[in-house]
Specification:
By secondary structure, the chain is of the alpha+beta class. It is built from 15 helices and 15 strands. The protein has 3 domains: about 290 residues, Alpha-Beta Complex (Protein-Tyrosine Phosphatase, Chain A); about 60 residues, no CATH class; about 100 residues, no CATH class.
């Protein structure tokens, strides 16, 4: 497929490729008599876009069963969609009735309401009070009510939650509204990655799953942008199933889709963009498959003795994301795609052999004797050496609280250079001494800070008292109170 794309692109032959698809699909001998009936003509937005009789959606409620909408199925990809035109004012009720009857979980809107100063679609959902609109819309002709419950904006699209209520049966159902807002009419999205982000968001919602009704996809006519979306989604499913791109013929898939709705994909640019999006999406899918293919149906477990073996897991577990992180006692062994089980066993064996050797001696800390005591004191109290002055020391000695300070003892600070004596001490004793020394330093620091605050408070009080005395003395001066 990628080779085909580059061949057409190098020759700039997209117009010829598109014309060939139109010619082949023009030979289809499918009728659309119901769309041409006099009573249905005003229900079509465009007179040359009509649903085929064999694939059109039929409404079961009301005086008419007609709506300009088509079932499009790709059995090989297990995909089914409903492609339809943007609703008209007189077909908005039919549109929501179709969604209700087909039990669709989502509506994919690929156009804006107004494009190039032309109304391309009726405003068929309530805007909500946050957009100065109504929160609900009642469709009296089909006895349905649509209520907006929430809205979330992404970079290129908006997702809305719409509650559809059947006023006859009092049943309600939530429908997601995915609105792609940056796809121009007769054009293509700004980039394949932006479009793929939208597609993956739709997929993640479950709106395209087989256990729900077909998603309703529409633009203005329901053939150009809508056809592009369905073609890319279906081809990516086929690539995911086969595991390669060579088995997927994009033009053949498009021709099959055109058997259900006429005119799918309207321009050569949309055909070229479909190839680009499929190629980029396929690279992501195949890359993800390659990462996990070395453990497609097996998992690695750890046995009690630290040796690994392979065990078969059930089908449900094989569908879960593969995690290549394996715990090995107190650390993690990361298994790359090239790492075999025997290699993991060898690593564990090497670690077990290493554990039989005696542990290394703890690293020697720098002796306190190599660091000035004043520096240790200043670091413990978060003070610089310059802040420890003789004035501070005098004030400390004059304080009653200084008697509670437990200064470090000399035998705790001075460390001998005799390495043999270090080895005789156990790690537990060293840790106890270290902890006690830390506690004494912290207590000293706390006391120093406390003395500091007391001294500052005393000086502040003295300055305040002196200022008050001066003010009172000036106030009492005779010159301030002349006789009247």
């Amino acid at each position: 497929m990628e080779k085909e794309f580059h061949e057409i692109d190098s020759k700039n032959a997209w117009a010829q490729a598109f014309q060939q698809i139109r010619s082949e699909s023009g030979n289809y001998n499918f009728t659309y008599k119901d769309a041409r009936k006099a009573e249905n003509k005003n229900l079509n937005r465009y007179r040359d876009v009509n649903p085929y009789d064999h694939s059109r959606v039929r409404l079961s409620k009301g005086d008419k069963d007609y709506i300009n909408a088509s079932f499009v199925e790709i059995p090989a990809a297990r995909r089914a969609y409903i492609l339809t035109q943007g609703p008209l004012p007189i077909t908005t009720g039919h549109f929501w009735l179709m969604i209700w009857e087909q039990k669709s979980k989502a509506v994919l809107m690929l156009n804006r309401v107004i494009e190039k100063n032309t109304v391309k679609c009726h405003q068929y959902w309530p805007l909500g009070s946050h957009h100065d609109g109504e929160d609900e819309m009642v469709l009296k002709d089909v006895n349905l009510k649509v209520t907006i419950c929430g809205e979330k904006e992404a970079e290129n699209y908006t997702v809305r939650e719409l509650l559809v209520s059947n006023l006859d049966s009092n049943e309600s159902r939530m429908v997601l509204h995915f609105h792609y807002t940056t796809w121009p009419d007769f054009g293509v999205p700004e980039s394949p990655s932006a479009f793929l982000n939208f597609l993956m968001a739709v997929r993640d919602s479950g709106a395209l799953n087989q256990n729900v009704g077909p998603a309703v996809v529409h633009c203005s006519a329901g053939i150009g942008r809508s056809g592009t979306f369905c073609l890319v989604d279906s081809c990516l499913i086929l690539i995911e199933e086969s595991g390669c791109t060579d088995t997927v013929n994009v033009q053949k898939v498009l021709l099959e889709m055109r058997k259900y709705r006429m005119g799918l994909i309207q321009t050569p640019d949309q055909l070229r963009f479909s190839y680009l999006a499929i190629i980029e999406g396929a690279k992501q899918i195949l890359a993800d498959q390659k990462i996990s293919e070395y453990v497609p149906s097996k998992s690695v477990y750890e046995l009690p003795d630290g040796v690994f073996e392979e065990k078969q897991i059930n089908n449900n577990e094989s569908e879960k994301p593969k995690k290549n992180i394996i715990e090995a006692e107190n650390r993690e062994e990361v298994a790359s795609p090239e790492t075999s089980v025997s290699e993991l066993n060898r690593r564990i064996a090497e670690k077990n052999d290493a554990k039989t050797e005696p542990p290394p001696l703890p690293p020697r800390n720098k002796p306190f004797s190599d660091i000035p005591i004043e520096k240790n004191f200043s670091e413990a109290t978060e003070m610089s050496p310059k802040s420890v002055t003789s004035e501070n020391v005098v004030s400390f000695k004059a304080s009653e609280d200084l008697r509670e300070v437990d200064f470090p003892r000399e035998e705790d600070i001075v460390v001998t250079n005799n390495t043999s004596s270090l080895r005789e001490n156990s790690i537990t004793d060293a840790e106890i001494r270290k902890r006690r020394r830390k506690e004494r330093l912290e207590k000293t620091a706390e006391t120093v800070q406390k003395m500091r605050r007391k001294q500052q408070d005393s000086e502040s009080w003295a300055r305040r008292r002196s200022r008050d005395w001066e003010e009172n003395s000036h106030t009492d001066s005779p010159s301030k109170h002349p006789r009247t």
